[in-house]
Write a structure and sequence with these properties.
Helix content is 43%, strand content 11%. The two termini are 31 Å apart. By secondary structure, the chain is α/β, with parallel strands linked by helices. Helix 6 links the parallel strand 5 and strand 6. It contains 13 helices and eight strands. It has an eight-stranded parallel beta sheet.
């Protein structure tokens, strides 16, 4: 049986939801060379965890993110090459009903990556709408681990109650849960402050990954009520949330200025200080370099307390993922 010791999980990772997503992020194939440069920069700076999913990529580009990561990891030669960890999430599609369907999905991801998946994750729990579906899918994930096709198993969008249920199910088969990822940022503290997930993860020896640590760009300082905002769904989020987060942005700006950092670096560093592993996305070398600037220093307790206070006052927060369970 494989052990999860071969997996190296760094302080910060890189989310690749945008790589192949036309609808929300405006991806097109001409970006691929830039994305390879993003990958190279991340790995060479110790950001070796890349989070993807077999559902990433819109329409005909489904699976595009995995394909690109496969190409990039094979082309990369240099420092930290052996520490690259590709974490993919397998979707709980309604037509995936058996453990074999998850084994097949894991193999299809491996085929797109051109290598075995390092960390396989359940993309979401079906507890909220089809609890009967979930057991077989989880058994399939465990099978992938037992068959040596993955180095570790993780979960995504699970709350404490459902997490404990899976933990017990896996413990019977001696399958460790390496990671759990949830939407977590200064605009989405719910999983930690209200669900108490961090304590449960600590107790069970699970690392907590923070996805959307910059809240679709709202925590970068790029967008303002008066200035230009992105199109589509992200623009809608900006319109709804920006007016109520003025004091939070002000607090971020003050700390960023005093630290000689950017607003987004402070927002990412806050996640790190909360002992989570943020996975901000990057579509350009400039964005990747900015994310990397969140590493190698730490906010002090006073700054964290100020940010916590400002975050608690925000009246409209990020909408929680509909699949997030309790």
């Amino acid at each position: 049986m494989q052990t999860n010791q071969q997996l190296f999980i760094p302080t910060m990772g890189c989310g690749t939801w945008a790589w192949g997503n036309r609808l929300l992020w405006g991806y097109d194939e001409s970006m691929d060379a830039q994305l390879q440069a993003v990958f190279n920069l991340c790995v060479s700076n110790g950001v070796t965890l890349f989070d993807t999913g077999d559902s990433y990529g819109t329409g005909k580009l489904n699976g595009r993110s995995e394909m690109l990561l496969g190409q990039f990891s094979q082309a990369y030669q240099g420092v930290n090459q052996d520490s690259i960890c590709i974490a993919t999430k397998l979707a709980a599609y309604p037509w995936r009903l058996t453990r074999q369907s998850m084994i097949s999905a894991g193999k299809a991801s491996a085929s797109r990556l051109g290598k075995n998946v390092d960390l396989v994750q359940m993309h979401w729990s079906t507890a909220n709408y089809a609890p009967w579906q979930e057991g077989a899918l989880l058994d399939g994930l465990a099978d992938l681990y037992e068959q040596g096709l993955v180095k570790g198993v993780g979960l995504s969008n699970y709350g404490p109650k459902r997490l404990k249920w899976v933990y017990e199910r896996f413990r019977d088969r001696q399958i460790p849960i390496v990671t759990l990822q949830v939407q977590y940022s200064l605009l989405s503290t719910y999983p930690v402050t209200e669900l108490g997930l961090k304590e449960v993860c600590d107790e069970l020896g699970i690392k907590l990954i923070a996805y959307s640590p910059l809240a679709l760009g709202l925590l970068t300082g790029k967008y303002s009520e008066k200035g230009p905002i992105p199109k589509g769904i992200r623009g809608l989020a900006c319109k709804q949330i920006l007016p109520g987060m003025r004091s939070l942005l002000e607090c971020l700006r003050e700390i960023a200025t005093s630290r000689n950092k950017t607003i987004s670096q402070v927002a990412i560093n806050w996640c790190i200080c909360k002992e989570t592993i943020p996975i901000p996305g990057a579509k350009s070398v400039a964005q990747a370099a900015e994310n990397i600037g969140a590493l190698g220093w730490k906010l002090d307790s006073g700054e964290i307390a100020e940010l916590d206070k400002a975050a608690a006052k925000v009246d409209k927060k990020m909408v929680q993922n509909i699949f997030q369970t309790r």
